[in-house]
Amino acid sequence: MTAFELLSEHGCFGGMQRFYQHASTEIGLPMRFSVYLPPQAKIDAAGGKVPAVLYLAGLTCNEETFMVKAGAQRMAAELGLALIAPDTSPRGAAVPGETDSWDFGVGAGFYLDATQAPWSRHYRMESYITAELIPLLAQELPVDAQRLGIFGHSMGGHGALTLALRHPALFKSVSALAPICAPTHCPWGHKAFAGYLGADPSSWAAHDASALMSQRSTEPYPGGILIDQGLADKFLPTQLHPHLFEAACAQVGQPLTLRRHAGYDHGYYFISTFMADHLAHHARTLLATPSAQP
Fold first, then answer.
1. DSSP characters over 48-96
2. Residue 233 appears among annotated catalytic residues
3. Nearest 10 degrees: CA dihedral of 90, 92, 95, 96?
4. What is the model's pLDDT at position 42?
5. Which tens digit of pLDDT belongs to each residue from 8-45?
6. Phi, psi for 34 (deg, rounded to 5)
7. In the chain, where do the E strands start and end?
8. How far is the C-alpha of 20 from the C-alpha of 35, rounded, in Å?
């Protein structure tokens, strides 16, 4: 009996786009996620596991946003990569105030484990992704958890960078699109961290990609990190701060390709423009990584 409930499936570029729901033990509520399985995945037979890339979406998004808007499936099918997209927060936790604003609470889990009540009971996105969802996917689907990359956009770019730095043994490759690179230095981060982690900023650096990178003694991803940033992004001056992550990478010798693009904003037109580059970035590492399969 599968641990997931299949909500819908759709043929897509020779593979299968699926949407699932399951009862999460880490979150304590039902959680939804989506998976694209390329044609190389042996969906109905043992073995045939493929490498996968986990995508973390931004504020207000859910498990459908990336699969519908990013245009990633065509190249994922060509490369033989599975795509995984979890929701951005718990749903139905009934925490007072969780739907009062678009940048905190529902749709804004920030990919961390809250330590402050009442958020700490259900808002456990880091543990959900790393300790529950990924192992279940490897158990139930033809996904090779030994060949796993992570990327994301905005809040999800923050999540991708921080989870990669906090769990380098789990993720073999990392990239981001318009990520929140230094949340301890921006209003979105201050609001989320104060609410989820408490008013004492000393605990915040553990979830700040620039701070985490600056604490490394060697480069955690010698194959390089890719970041794309639009220069017409209205959030760039106050919220994103890629220059701080760039400086942290330079400090520890972490190879970073940070591309700044005139005329591109924060939305999915920008994301879809550079999606192929990000999938190719992950494929270079993941397809060269030996499979754990016998």
1. --EEEEEEE--TT--TTHHHHHS--HHHHHHHT-EEEEE-SS-SS---T
2. yes
3. 130
4. 77
5. 999 999 999 999 999 999 999 999 999 999 999 976 55
6. -125, 150
7. 5-12, 15-23, 30-37, 50-56, 82-86, 143-153, 173-177, 225-230, 256-261
8. 8
- For residue 292, pLDDT over 80 is answered with no
Please give the mean pLDDT across all residues of the chain.
Answer: 96
Is 103 a residue of the active site?
no
Do residues 123 and 93 lie in contact, with contact meaning Cβ atoms separated by under 8 Å?
yes
Q: Which of 233, 241, 278, 281 is catalytic?
A: 233
* Helical (H) or strand (E) element with 275: helix 268-286
Sign of the C-alpha dihedral, residues 113, 64, 22, 165? negative
**Which residues are CB-neighbours of 173 under 8 A, at least 6 positions away?**
53, 149, 150, 221, 223, 281, 282, 284, 285, 286
Helix and strand tally (H, E) in the chain? 9, 9
**Catalytic entry in 24, 34, 89, 154:** 154
Q: Return the DSSP state at 168.
A: T
Question: Choosing from 22, 266, 281, 282, which is the catalytic residue?
Answer: 266
pLDDT of residue 255: 98
**Among this protein's residues, is 266 annotated catalytic?**
yes
226-255 burial code (b ≥16 CB/10 A, e <16): bbbbbeebebbeebbbbebbbebbeeeebe
Q: What DSSP string describes 135-158?
A: HHHHHHSSEEEEEEEEEEETHHHH
The single-letter code of the amino acid at 183 is P
Percent of the chain with pLDDT over 70: 97
Contact 251, 46 (CB under 8 A): no
Q: pTM of the predicted model, to two decimals?
A: 0.97
